[in-house]
Amino acid sequence: MEQKIPQNIEAEQAVLGSVFFEQGSIKTILDKLQQQDFYSPNHQVLYTIMSDLHHEDIFIDYTTLIDRLENRNLLAKAGGVEYIAGLIDAVPSTANLLNYINIVKDKSITRRIQDTCREIIENSYSIDNTPAFIDDVEKKIIGITKDKRTSDFKGVGEIANLLIGKIAEQAQIGGNVTGLDTRYYEFNHYTLGLQKSDLLIIAARPSMGKTAFALNIALNVAKSKNRPHVAFFSLEMGVDQLVMRLLSCEAQVDNFKLRQGKLTPQEWEKIHFAVSSLSGLNLYFDDSGTVKVTDLRSKCRKLKQEEKLDLIVVDYLQLLSGSQTNQANRVQEVSEISRVLKEVARELKVPVVALSQLSRNVEMRKEKKPVMADLRESGSIEQDADIVMFLYREDYYDQETTKKNHVEVSIAKNRSGTIGEFELLFNKNMSTFSNLSTSNAQDTYDKDQAKEDY
């Protein structure tokens, strides 16, 4: 049986013929379709000429269209006078224009998928780098299926009106958070929550509580309104260790006692309640040993397609690896990793929180508080990140300090806001970070969020 190339000539005729009935339809057609979306060569020519007339502010009708085609010696390629006249009769209803456009677009996408698959099969016979080939295949297919034709450029007026709508919506909702709620009121004060498409780097030396902080952020976000989906990639600790920490945090039971199993009846009750609470969250862990940043991107794309992705957490950046071409140069490799993480945030429109180690230079200085230059192995991390924050515990270096269990969070870079510092309380035995004390900022935050509490 002969297989037919995906096409719908009648829908293509209806799309082009609608212009003769309603001039405004050409704007919709040009915004939704491109020349190559039409299968018929006749229709590709007609689309191009109609586009030219529209951009020259010339009214499109039978006479102007024929005249332009004749001037360019394209009348025969467009099907001739009789064919063009017949387009007027090929329009069942201009009210269904969008349906006709969608039919044309769907057929075009199917053809592109077929062409791409043939190209993939052809290229598969001469693969040098299998991971890179797989990533390229995935990018091509997803790029086609996500193709919803819109203008490449947007006018400032259009963008401004959309923003006004968002601002008005936020004003109605109230509160100080426009992104995902971390439930740390001073964190939210600086960032307005975790924002879509942002790459946030949390950097610290070992034993400062990076993983615990990331777990607390993931847990708080997963608990917030609408139960966001959180993907946590652990390259350092196993999922059992991470969930053990979460149970300790949620139940407020000492981590060491929990691992020993030496719990009182009351503590067992707390643990069972914590298990029930955690089971209702959309919090996923990956400890499969995924080390290639391209594998991470692939897994996140799959979750996004399934509408199960609102936040990505990576613990930690330096344990990822880049492409084989950069493995000989660690600085270039880390640069690639940070760039890909930023691309993932933008492509999937979700915040990415990545933990990062700091260089040992911190330990060699009298002043132990980290600075940007301490970011390990690459300055590109600072460049790619939208927000860079450092964790610092004074009691780790000074046993006599009055700031026991205080963690100073320093926001050293904030592309969309201000920089500054705030403190959180860290209960290491229960892997819990909490707001330091009641303040006006917290009171305001609590009132705003009260109606959304779980």
Describe the fold and architecture:
The chain has about 450 residues and is an alpha/beta fold. It has 2 domains: about 10-145, DNAb Helicase, Chain A (Orthogonal Bundle); about 180-450, P-loop containing nucleotide triphosphate hydrolases (Rossmann fold), CATH 3.40.50. Helix content is about 50%, strand content about 10%. The chain has 19 helices and 9 strands. Strands 3-2-4-5-1-6-7-8-9 form a 9-stranded mixed beta sheet. Helix 2 runs parallel beside helix 6 (about 95-125), helix 11 crosses helix 13 (about 265-280) and helix 14 packs parallel to helix 15 (about 330-350). It is elongated and about 95 Å long. The protein starts with 8 loop residues before the first helix and ends in a 5-residue tail after the last helix. The model is unreliable at about 450-454 (pLDDT under 50).
Short description:
This protein has 454 residues and is α/β, with parallel strands linked by helices.
